[in-house]
User: What shape does this take?
Amino acid sequence: MAQKNETLFHSELNPAPKSVFRQELITWYETEDSLIRKSLTRNFLQDRHYDSYVSEPIPRPEEQGDEITNGELENITSSDLERLKWYVERDLKGELGYPSGLGLIALRKKYPRNYQQILDEL
Assistant: This one.
């Protein structure tokens, strides 16, 4: 089970108990265009530790603007259209998880009419 620790263990400054073999620190923060998930993973092996670091930008879902008029499709770039199709196909197969699902949410909110047309085609 998970346990809350008040400190990040370090092989020289604050050694981990023998039972601890891995520790993770996750930090979320916002930028103007996205959310960022940074994770530090520290693996312990005997009297040493090894760190790995991952930074994942997650596009911020954009608010729906005035792009929809008279029920017409939004002006969508070909790359966004292909990406939206890819996300929808994976989602319908149940293959889309976190954090990829956030990409689908962002595109679905930005292009709701295109999203519906792709659903209707599939």
The first strand starts at residue 22 and ends at 30.
